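Supplementary notes for students who missed Thursday's class. We covered one full example, reproduced here. Read the sequence, then the structure, then the short commentary at the end.
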Amino acid sequence: MKRQTKLNRLPTTNYQLPTTNLCIRPKLPLVIFLVLSLNAILAPIVYAATDETWQRTQAYALGILGFITLALVIYLFDVVFRPERY
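Structure (token representation):
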């Protein structure tokens, strides 16, 4: 009887690395650009509405925090209503 080693038991097929979806990757810079552009529009409005009691950096931070909160809400609704995709 032939003795089997670990090398003899390995399949001889060539493995390929899984390909990634290249369409998703370029969207991230576009999303970041859009969020920063919208924040540049909304931050002066927030700054003016607070009657200049806040600093400009606080207004920008509030806008970014609002966008992050909105993105999390949308993501969590998607996870709750379509869990089979995750």
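Commentary. The CA atoms of residues 5 and 54 lie 71 Å apart. The chain has a mean pLDDT of 76. If anything here is unclear, bring it to office hours.
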